[in-house]
## 1
Amino acid sequence: MLQYIAKRVVYFIPTLLVISVVSYFLIELPPGDYLTSYLAALESRGQMVDPSVIEGLRRRYGLDQPVYMRYLKWTWNLLHGDWGHSFEWNQPVSKLIGDRVLLTFVVSLGTMLFTWIVAFPIAIYSATHQYSVGDYCFSFLGFFGLGIPDFMLALVLLWIAYANFGADLSGLFSEKLVGAPWSLAKVADMLKHLWVPLVVLGTAGTAGLIRTTRANLLDELRKPYVFTARAKGLTERRLLLKYPLRVALNPFISGIGYVLPGLVSGATIISVVLNLPTTGPLLLRALMSQDMYLAGSFIMMLSTLTVIGTLISDILLGWVDPRIRYE
Amino acid sequence: MQKETDQTAAQETMYQGQLAEEKIYVASQWQLMWWKFRRHKAALVSGVVLIFFYLIAIFCEFLAPFDPHEISEQYVFAPPQGIHFVDEQGFHLRPFVYGLTPGRDPETFRKIFKVDKERKYPIYFLVYGDPYKLWGVFQMDLHLLGLQDRSGTMYLLGADRLGRDLLSRLLYGTRISLSIGLVGITISFILGILIGGASGYYGGLVDLIVQRVIEFIRSMPSIPLWLALSAALPKEWPAIRVYFGITVILSLIGWTGLARVVRGRFLALREEDFVMAARLAGASELRIITRHLVPSFLSHIIASLTLTIPGMILSETSLSFLGLGLRPPVISWGVLLQDAQNIRALAHSPWLLVPGAVIVVVILSFNFLGDGLRDAADPYSR
């Protein structure tokens, strides 16, 4: 097991390196150098910029140096906690990102729990009652959940709430609490608003999870050892919980690896629609205005989250299912 | 007597059964697949639905009653006009729409529309209306449906925020949104077959490198990556180039799944007896690949392709919806849904969500069709 973990962690490092290259490539991708476009934007607004500031910025980002030097410098700063400077917000990137990452994490984690709590019992029911009315209903809902784009679901929810109850479901906090410092009341307020993104984000994941778990469990239930156990007089309940369920649990575990990044990236679109104070809208804005340091750091961080998620799920899978370790 | 007929009937059915069995023995692989596919009713219906949508995509200029870019200030957010067959005088074979009178709400000053039952505009098949170029080549002005009296309006699905006919826009958007899936899948297909094939056929170092690259691409969060890449497309590019840029970006990630399937198939089939037999009979490598290997996994490839297309369509829609994909004046479903982002506009004119409903139908159809194809791809399994 230890060897397996070590192998996974060793894979982790080069992956991170390549991700940093890709992220930096994205920063450099837009034509022209960002400082020039930034200055042009400032001048068009009639603002004069102090030449010494420009010189400082130029040196700070090493714009007078070749690309690979700039990349090394960027990585070096990253390792030391300097995520760069957002031109649009005129603030350090780390400060802009901090709060939003926390909220993104809360939303993602909440969605994951929601997905599990809903998918788990339904999958077991569907597998043990195959071809029953309930199974057909859930299968149909599952297909629908996979087929409907999540931003559509969000739009429809918002629309129904607004048209029928005049309620604005968007956002994660009540209006008066948006700028307030963290307090118990604010957390309670957030929990009240949280269900909308959870339902919207969780629908597709829940549908997918039900399908795979159901299929897995059905495969397991047809295996000879189940017949043997039943012939020996094990109660149905114990029989189900003891072995087949454990094997069928694999998608839940491997789900963690996809859930974390999937949610973080899926949340990008949903949070724009629902106007959530998470990373999505900020990333979108950064990309739209070509605020590339902010965008690059975002991509870097989201990718790192993805890889960490995969790492965790790999280790958990190796722990739950020893067969995987020896592949 | 009764008994005898029963017996002959039984013999008859037995004979029929044998015939059916013999038919199965001599049937080609594709025939077997078709028989199996036919049994999956949902997939069959979905296939018909998709053919219908692609026909719309091909003939959208002719099917659309109006020019989708024509702005009409008077009819901003005009509600859908129902098609009627019955009026005070009774039933008419020729359907008609009532006139629409724009006005303002005296209190809120919001634009409202009154249905004017005095004015009736009959709808005709094959009328001459807004000129267009079919497939960009043939200059025409014939439309499938329309009014002969050009003073009336016919917003069958309502109008958008510039008074453009939503139905016409939806039909034009179908062409862009559906074709982007096909173009993207073609690029993914070529990349996937080449790279996955090489990886599976040569094995060793090539395989190792390709597998690492695929793992890496799949470990990147796709949506932020897409967003970043599409944001990097130069703003001054013409629409057609942006269109291809977006498809290439979408295919960059799409090929990995396909390459995996192809590689797995190659690895599994390489050791099969019929490949050995072909080799012993002196067939060249190229012949083995193209005549023996590819046909035996082509059906799997087609099935997994079908399951990849909805993802592509959804991605394009999401990107355009966010304003990073295709941009107006190009019409795609995502661009149409941009209007629905404003929740207040949506509350007053819910017909803006119709493109979303179409998307759901198409995505579901692709999913069902792919499911059926996947089951049929292996006709020998029970």
## 2
Amino acid sequence: MREQDLKRALGRVSLSEEGRQRIMEASRQRLRRKENPMMKKKKLAFVAIAAVCILTVGAVAAGSAGVWYSSSSARPEYTSLPTQAQMDADVGYHGTAVETFSNGYAFQDANVVRNTLETDGQQEKFKSLSLRYEKDGAQVDLSLEKFSGAEDHEGQPAGSQGGVDLYAQAFVNRVVPEDYVKTQEEVALEQAGELCFACDGSDTVADYQVRSVSWTENGVAYSLTQIDGPLTLEELMEMAGEVIDAE
Amino acid sequence: MNSLSVRPTDEDLENLVLTYADQLYKLCFSILGNRADAEDAVSDVIVKYMTRSPVFRGEEHRKAWLLRTAVNQSRDALRARKRRAHLDLDDLRDAAVPQEDAGVLEALFQLPEQYRTVLHLYYVEGYQSAEIGTILSLTPAAVRKRLQIGREKLRLMYEQEDKP
């Protein structure tokens, strides 16, 4: 056998378009089942919670539920506070962020998040920023997002800071298996806005206490969220005020 | 309950599949010998890539990671199924591989996997022995040895077939 015969024969094997589609679909389904178990649970819950908030707005506004997919690198992409120029270059817009808060929470790292929001068959893709702050092991996430629903906020009006309206919410995020059946009590709590559900592909049920404050400024939706942390909603609102004042 | 999920975007997935699926499929097919197993292995590699978010020094590093993962995934598949690679000639016909080339591949699949993989990386991907060594965690000398043995075995098989 000549070497060129071997080379040619091996080169003849190729993936058909149907095969490509099968691989795409199989990978897509498996990724959905996996639901990013490599992400830290807190981060996963945070992303899922953000999705719940927006999806709820979508359901009210458009009369039907939507789906929010998002992804980010498991490794930090910024280890220093991103500048406005960096934000412009990486996500296409910029907002305000602070290095430290007066209560001691300090910037740790940040990532660009790629989002796909599907509502009523329409897809909207956008990038956002997720910045993490830490103090004594507790974490707060500050997210900056710019998309068509940026003016809508989940939660209750909670006053204003520097002329900007704030919205606050506190609830339990219950991460459940895909086939989980809600009890009547859970349905009642969900309807009261005290319980949100998310799936992460795991077989177990886990609860996370979430407190979040959100606002919109210059078309950018901000939210400060803490999961299973010591901050009250009032303290989060004070932190929101510091971001707004830094504008 | 709203349907929620957190996953890489469809765009990420499409880009990855468009860029690498064919290359990975060729390699997995060289190890596994049939379309269904090869497609499964490629999907495994893609899911690993998307969920582990590895960081690369450059495009060559990324490609080497994908190829190494494809080799490992295919080997795992062979081990899990406790069988040798099975060359499916129907798959070759479906892919419009001429009979002459199908014969070459048939001979190739009589070789142990370790030789097929090295031959594939050398002849199809165009890697040199040092680069193949990096991908397969072998010394360049071991790669050259496998190439030599692989070629020799193929030559012997062909000579035997040609004997009356």
